Amino acid sequence: MEMITNVTEYEAIAKEKLPKMVYDYYASGAEDQWTLEENRNAFARILFRPRILVDVSRIDLTATILGFKVSMPIMIAPTAMQKMAHPEGEFATARAASAAGTIMTLSSWATSSVEEVASTGPGIRFFQLYVFKDRNVVAQLVRRAERAGFKAIALTVDTPILGRREADIKNRFTLPPHLILKNFEGLDLGKLDKTSDSGLASYVAGQIDRSLNWKDISWLQTITSLPILVKGVLTAEDTRIALKAGAAGIIVSNHGARQLDYVPATISALEEQLSLEEVEVALHDYLVCKSNSLLKRLRLPKARRSFNMKFDKASSVGEDIVARGRVSTHDNIRGRRRSKSSRQRVVALSAIEAEYIAMTEVVKEAYEYGVVKAAEGRIPVFLDGGVRRGTDVFKALALGAAGVFIGRPVLFSLAADGEAGVRKVLQMLRDEFELTMALTGCRSLKEISRDHVITEWDRPRIAPKL
Where is the FMN hydroxy acid dehydrogenase domain (predicted)? Predict the structure, then answer.
């Protein structure tokens, strides 16, 4: 274990140590597993714009999450049945999170109860909630978590039924006989029945409430004072509804790519935009509707008439551009002795250029959306899915996330080396994140900005003011 240098190396060790059924349950995604790969690939398509000659002798990684100060914006996501990975399961994970000064989220389907995890010692912990058909069971569980000192509820909203996980079907997945879903011990809900396909899929079909809807957030607020995070949001539309429903935060999640395949990677959902090419198409359509076509404008000598007041305003911009010698698209005219009509033509063309640029900004703004923008800074947005490097953490924060949650890295390191493995994963991610901050010129989380990254939908960027 001493030679492990990055988080992903734990997976190969876990694969060797775990029974095939268990490894496949942890590692696989839904159906074709396109989203499983895309969760990682999308991070790789985001590049950095580092700033240099910044004094980075001191770097502060601390974050405040729902009012709680943590050592870094890297937290542990809820993952079920951790004692399949290691005998100490959630106990080991809780101790590792506490030692790292960060948050652990306990799954409803944990193999350790909320009371048992609380007994491991101090720590900031959230509780992930599935809503069962029997609402009395849900109410009891939420109150137990609150009494045990958990600080927030992460309400999973993307699982009315279980996604088609073909590895689990082939393996006829079920919980090993010596383990139970500990939070439901004594309620006849702690075991998964053996079936001809996935025991978990059958369990979800029989127990989870498909009628769950936005009104149930209000219901939850009547039974607990804990803040409620909505986990499983991927769109701006649902983010706006979550705001109105009183959510305390959003967790952008595709359930580790285990529910609906071919949804976007979570990092892509933070900030969705049309590509520059798509903006140009939209702009062209707008101009066609407005005055036949841009090309027609450029060709007509009576262009002023169609531009009216807007042309006059843009024309002044064009004149300024000409005065500074910046009409790059008209080099064939520059440097020559210009007639009055030629100069007027250049000014007219420059004015059209200026209006085109201005309209591009308007159209791009109109077509810009995503979870972060929809949240309007009123509630924090978190992310899980695909985080394997400190660089991934930085990219998520640069695109507006307040923090990230990690799942599979915890499971694989737990399987490989117990509590020590989880501690090492958290430390490696912390070290890599700190390194990324230093090399991009950021000394605190508030200095990480959108200007530090380039996405595939970005147009050539204008340098920000220092």
Answer: 1-458
